[in-house]
């Protein structure tokens, strides 16, 4: 009898909980309409805000988004233009906040909590148009979304970060560049300057580089082509292959792979458990290591000038 009463009490409690949950959900749906927490399907993307800020005197631009794709483009204007687009209806509360403090401009897009419960919707995009003359510092961070630079840019320092998304750029010239994605790829057409590129789960590809820096990925391949290496290069991947080619003088190249092959059009030999590649003619170093993957290093010179392996 006690067992029956316990089961009946539990059933009444669960039924009451279901009724309350459905009532609250229905209330939210009726109040928020098509943009409530039970919204389904995709909607047409439209511009929600379009604002401009005078770029004179700025030395730092900071972009912070919780959930949005960020596209950065050049503009012939003297102003910075910020365009926010989404597929949400008029009830959506996501807003762009723009704050300027002296030479620092902060652009922030916070996501309405209700969008986290929407299905097949909630697309956000932030387009930033920057004057061609601007060449100071830039920082862009998004928790969920891609970050792309769709023109040729020159900065003093640049920091790009996304927790879940890709980072892409055309031509990026800077003194220092720090690009990071937790889950996504990094792909750059041209990169000049000192750089640190890292991804926890994804590949790193740089089609043309000048300078030196660090590449690191936990799970993914690294591919880089240097017209010339001007400072030390360190490449580390826990699980992935490494392909590097370079022009100019041969640096001091060492490589290590626990499970993989090492190939090059330069001479390769083993020393102290590591592979040495080529005969260095400068003090610049290139260190490559992968726990599981192949390593391929190529010097970009005429065939007649290639060192015989």
In short:
By secondary structure, this protein is mainly beta.
Description:
- This protein has 309 residues and is mainly β.
- Among the domains are: 2-33; 185-309, no CATH class.
- The chain has one helix at residues 2-32; strands at 46-54, 60-67, 69-75, 79-86, 95-101, 104-110, 124-131, 137-144, 147-164, 167-183, 186-201, 204-219, 222-239, 242-246, 252-259, 262-264, 268-271, 274-277, 285-292, 295-299.
- It has a 20-stranded mixed sheet that branches.
- The protein starts with a helix and ends in a 10-residue tail after the last strand.
Distance between the termini: 87 Å
Name the shape in a single word: globular
Q: How many strands appear in the DSSP assignment?
A: 20
- Rounded to an integer in angstroms, the radius of gyration calculated over CA atoms is 26 Å
């Amino acid at each position: 009898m006690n067992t029956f009463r316990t089961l009946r009490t539990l059933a009444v409690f669960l039924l009451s909980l279901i009724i309350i949950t459905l009532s609250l959900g229905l209330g939210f749906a009726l109040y928020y309409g098509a943009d409530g927490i039970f919204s389904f399907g995709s909607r047409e993307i439209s511009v929600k805000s379009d604002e401009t800020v005078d770029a004179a005197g700025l030395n730092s631009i900071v972009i912070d988004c919780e959930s949005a794709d960020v596209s950065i483009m050049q503009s012939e204007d003297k102003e910075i233009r910020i365009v926010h687009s989404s597929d949400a209806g008029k009830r959506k509360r996501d807003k762009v906040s723009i704050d300027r403090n002296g030479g620092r401009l902060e652009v922030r897009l916070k996501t309405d909590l209700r969008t986290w419960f929407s299905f097949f919707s909630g697309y956000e995009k932030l387009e930033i148009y920057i004057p061609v003359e601007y060449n100071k510092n830039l920082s862009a961070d998004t928790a969920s979304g891609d970050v792309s630079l769709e023109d040729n840019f020159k900065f003093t320092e640049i920091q790009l970060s996304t927790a879940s998304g890709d980072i892409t750029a055309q031509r990026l010239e800077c003194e220092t560049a720090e690009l990071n994605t937790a889950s996504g790829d990094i792909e750059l057409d041209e990169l000049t300057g000192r750089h640190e590129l890292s991804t926890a789960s994804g590949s790193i590809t740089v089609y043309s580089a000048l300078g030196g820096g660090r590449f690191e990925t936990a799970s993914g391949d690294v591919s880089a082509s240097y017209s010339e290496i001007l400072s030390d290069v360190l490449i580390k991947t826990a699980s992935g292959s490494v392909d590097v080619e370079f022009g100019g003088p041969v640096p001091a190249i060492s490589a290590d792979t626990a499970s993989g092959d090492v190939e090059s059009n330069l001479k390769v030999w083993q020393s102290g458990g590591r592979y040495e590649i080529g005969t260095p003619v400068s003090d610049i170093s290139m260190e490559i290591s992968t726990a599981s993957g192949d390593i391929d290093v190529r010097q970009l010179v005429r065939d007649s000038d290639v060192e015989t392996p």
